[in-house]
Amino acid sequence: MKTMKKLYSLLTILILGSCTQDFEDINTNPNTPVNVQPSLLLRQVIYDYGEQMSYEGFTAGNLLGQYTTALDFNLFDRHNLKSPQLGGNPWPIFYQNLRDNEIILDLSTDNPSFKVYEGSARIMKAYMAAALTDLFGDVPYFEAFKGQDGTVTPEYDSQESIYMDTDGIFDNLQKGIEALQSYNGTIALEGDILFNGDLDGWERFANSLKIKYLMRISSKMDVSNELQTLFSEGNFISENSQNAIFNFTDGEPNNFRLARLRIGDFNNFVMSETMDEILTSLDDARISRLFRPYSNSAGGDEYNGLLNGIDASSTIVSLADYSLAGTIFRENTGLLDANFMTSMETHFLLAEAAQRGFISADAQNLYEIGVNQAFEYWQVALPDEYLSGTGALDNGDPLENIITQKWISNMINGYEGWIEYRRTGHPQLKTISASLNNNLIPVRMPYPSEEEALNNQNYTTAANNTEGNCINVKVWWDQE
């Protein structure tokens, strides 16, 4: 037995020795590039983020924004946000894509041949960082994306600093615009599935984002001068043809992910009572695009919504009594877009700015442009009397009407509807059926459990600043 052990040890030494000799040469794959091309990364970041967040926005975001409700697997819909089910954990989506985008940014600033990528990389960084902090509040940012430098437990930065400091949201938008304007090379921006390499499109995108984020922080500081300048210059997304979107297809692999769910999971989502009441009160023709008549309707053309947050263990409901999401979200996803920023959203934001007196402009005109473009975006004909009847700006509270129309138009971006509700209080969301959050509508997403395990010290500080990672603690721009 001892002899066998000695032979085994000798063989092990010989094997290890032979494996380590010339290891680097032997184990280098000549077909694997040492450096990734920014064009490939840009395409990946735009598609991966847009595809995943469209799914997230429809599943979890639409529950929070009360566009749809869940019949089952609905702890999240009952506002137990620490129990994501079909969606509800966007944290890794943000950090994976922000990390890859940071590689593009580093390449663009280190290598003159890649300079054309700087503007789009800075704008995408601002866009994704804003979505991240608007959901969670304080997050790792300035020390994040530096794992290759040894920083694996980054500190959490305040939302205010992420918005306002150097290398923050506004700074990157401005630097991105300057990089676009100063670029005089001949190398094209490849991998750009938003604007097909059109640098002017990226500049309009950045200015629309400036309008959006200035409105978002408008309760914290005077944003009138900056908004007025942006409006007067007019270099923002102003037509649907300029939207920051990419198209899904009807078939795999680039169709909307809801089309790939098993039918039982898709049938989990039905129209919410909130959406039903708003669309019905407006006699809004978009209801037939966004939803389907419920199976048990007498005439086969009626719609019905369910109050969010039922207790599925004690409340029995029949799928046939409620309206499923429209075919555009499953059978006909070639008609659907991954939506980053649009003309309709830009015009609704400007209409709100005019209505609040932040800019000198015709709020009604901006509102009506937004409504027209929203119907066009969803491929529904605008009824002749809509803007003089139920959809008129002065049919009730003008400010509520502006924000409600923006809420309807953003159904593919449900998180946005929830974020803007938190900022404005519109539209009036309902107390859900069986709340697991003391009948309160959450005002932030909780940090995921893996942060407590992997970045414990910094997580603990952030959790303490939010009363134990509480979903009822407002983010910076939402605090009075």
Automatic annotation (TrEMBL):
<feature type="signal peptide">
    <location>
        <begin position="1"/>
        <end position="24"/>
    </location>
</feature>
<dbReference type="Pfam" id="PF12771">
    <property type="entry name" value="SusD-like_2"/>
</dbReference>
<dbReference type="InterPro" id="IPR041662">
    <property type="entry name" value="SusD-like_2"/>
</dbReference>
<keyword id="KW-0732">Signal</keyword>
<dbReference type="InterPro" id="IPR011990">
    <property type="entry name" value="TPR-like_helical_dom_sf"/>
</dbReference>
<keyword id="KW-0449">Lipoprotein</keyword>
<protein>
    <submittedName>
        <fullName>SusD/RagB family nutrient-binding outer membrane lipoprotein</fullName>
    </submittedName>
</protein>
